[in-house]
Amino acid sequence: MRSDDDRLSQTFAALANSTRRAILARLAKREATVNELAEPFNLSLQAISRHIKVLEQAGLITQGQNAQYRPCTIDATPLKEVSKWTEQYRPIWEARFDRMENFINQLNKKEKDNE
Amino acid sequence: MRSDDDRLSQTFAALANSTRRAILARLAKREATVNELAEPFNLSLQAISRHIKVLEQAGLITQGQNAQYRPCTIDATPLKEVSKWTEQYRPIWEARFDRMENFINQLNKKEKDNE
Q: For the segment A9-43, what is each residue's pLDDT rounded down to a tens digit?
């Protein structure tokens, strides 16, 4: 059995590619076959199939079992885990921007004082 | 110049490793030197340095310039981008769980009707 940590690593690795993220964005609208996915991306069926396999192994998409027409469907469950992990750090990036805002306000105040 | 898409890919790739995520969790508490980071992870300085380099290239940490004491500091800015990207899919995972909840409610109702 894979640990949560391993699954999260696999999800992040699957997302570390702009074509795979574009495939997910396309599937967020509606399901699509491999042929339908290959066309707009101007990629070979082989290349698209490789990306689909990575996404499927990470649990980000599922593929229908009908041999003739096997549409790919997005499964956003792993993205919920990514969101949960990332949100832990929200206080840090918000503090950072707060500090930056303070800094900019101080600069503006200084400029005003010098006018 | 790197595109937003390339930067996001680099961030995801840096996060696709549990040791690197553990380093970020450690640095979220307070800054630390490479030596301080190496100890709890039971890794060689060389291995930790490699992870730090990946995190630094992804903009997730910065390292002080003082040659004697170069503490690593977390920079959560790329995580804000990850959060922004991931949140686009929130309606999908929430709909999924809504549907699952409906499904479970229907099952419970059926069981009750059959009692």
A: 999 999 999 999 999 999 999 999 988 998 888 88
Amino acid at A103: F
Q: Which residues, at least 6 apart from B70, have a Cβ–Cβ distance to it below 8 Å?
A: B33, B34, B63, B64
Q: Per residue in B47-93, pLDDT tens?
A: 999 999 999 999 999 998 776 678 999 999 999 999 999 999 999 99
Which residues of A are less than 8 Å from B21 in CB distance?
Answer: 5, 8, 85
Distance (Å, rounded) from C-alpha B19 to C-alpha A97? 27
| A100 touches B at CB < 8 Å | no
- Residue A1: pLDDT band (50, 70, 90) is very low
Cα separation of B58 and B4, whole Å?
12
Whole-angstrom Cα distance, residue B113 to residue B115?
A: 6
Tokens of B45: 């300085």
**Whole-complex ipTM:** 0.82
C-beta atoms of A92 and B74 within 8 A: yes
Cα atoms in the Cβ-side hemisphere of radius 13 Å centred on B103: 6
The DSSP 8-state label assigned to residue B63 in this structure reads E
A25 contacts on B by Cβ (under 8 Å)? 88
User: Does B82 contact chain A (CB < 8 Å)?
Assistant: yes
Contact A93 B77 (CB under 8 A): yes
Q: Is the pTM of this model over 0.80?
A: yes
Q: How far is the C-alpha of A14 from the C-alpha of B71, rounded, in Å?
A: 31
